[in-house]
Design a protein that fits this description.
Blueprint lengths: L1 E3 L4 H7 L2 E3 H7 L2 H17 L6 H25 L1 H4 L17 H22 L2 H22 L6 H5 L1 H4 L1 H10 L4 H24 L1 H7 L4 H5 L1 H19 L1 H4 L5 H23 L4 H30 L1
Antiparallel strand pairs: 1-2
Length: 305
């Protein structure tokens, strides 16, 4: 299934006449979107109150589409550096499968639609948070921080931490301490997660001129920073127990996962090769997924009792 793109001259030669539907899907960064949507769903489940199932589905779709829109606009803006990096050179725009203008229009359309529908169908607080998340990822992270400071991931990571707050607001219509705790878990998880990738993809970032911490400060400093954030993350993951959001099932699981994640960070410090970072990166994804799974499991046990 394809969509026809009419163009002339050099643009036509570069991009051809047809854009495959799968390339538009790829612009949405579906793998990233899946984790974003999942954490948003957990925020909805944990929030007090109820939301009609149809509206809940609408809210989830809006979070997914909003995240995808931000990803598409990010790909449009980063098309020049994406073309230089082995990890991203086959993305639809640098590979010549989607024209930059089409990607930008696609992203903006989805962003506006997702926020508008969230506002009309769910509530203004959730819509406002979704709009701010898209703005933060596109403007603050992609345009203002990514190419200018090694703290790009530390500050920009907030964009990926908002979905559970959006999910919570979709149900409760507010921003509560519990949703801020969920935000803090993802916010502190983001730097060690991305720096693990940046350690073994340092050459790519260096070639593209992106000042990721390993490029600017070197491997040892990055490894110790990863340890600091991972160590700070562990007690924060126990806060849901302290504030009454979850119980001991979650607490015990979060403690075990936190110790394992910390051990990964220690291995990155001790092992000077890329092997430890290559192991920590996929484990970091599993770690966050399991943390939020445990929150759901603990909640279901509470309801059963």
């Amino acid at each position: 299934m394809t969509a026809t793109y009419q163009s002339n001259g050099a643009a036509s030669a570069a991009y051809g006449q047809e854009i495959a539907l799968k390339d538009f899907v790829a612009l949405l960064k579906p793998r990233v979107m899946s984790l974003v949507v999942f954490t948003g769903v957990v925020g909805m489940v944990l929030a007090p109150g109820t939301l009609h199932p149809v509206l809940a589905i609408v809210a989830i779709l809006c979070i997914a589409v909003g995240a995808g829109a931000a990803g598409a606009i990010n790909m449009w803006y980063d098309r020049d550096i994406d073309a230089l990096m082995s990890r991203t050179k086959n993305r639809p725009i640098p590979a010549g499968r989607v024209p930059p203008g089409a990607a930008l229009g696609f992203g903006i359309t989805l962003a506006v639609a997702s926020v508008a529908i969230m506002a009309l169908a769910v509530n203004g607080v959730a819509a406002g948070l979704l709009a701010f998340t898209i703005f933060f990822y596109v403007v603050i992270y992609s345009m203002a921080l990514k190419r200018r400071t090694p703290q790009n991931i530390v500050i920009g990571g907030a964009a990926g931490a908002f979905p559970p707050m959006i999910g919570w607001a979709a149900v409760g219509g507010d921003i509560a301490l519990a949703s801020i705790v969920l935000f803090a878990i993802i916010f502190l998880w983001t730097p060690p997660h991305f720096w693990a990738l940046a350690l073994y993809k340092k050459g790519d970032y260096d070639k593209a001129g992106v000042p990721m911490l390993p490029v600017v400060a070197g491997r040892e400093t990055t490894a110790w920073q990863m340890f600091v954030y991972t160590a700070a993350l562990l007690p924060v993951t126990l806060l849901p127990c302290i504030i009454g959001l979850s119980g001991m099932v979650y607490g015990a699981g979060a403690l075990v996962l936190g110790v394992l994640f910390l051990a990964c960070a220690v291995n990155v410090i001790r092992d000077k090769s890329d092997r430890s970072a290559r192991r920590m990166f996929p484990f970091s994804i599993l770690y966050l997924f399991l943390i939020f799974v445990l929150l759901l499991v603990d909640q279901s046990l509470w309801i059963a009792v």
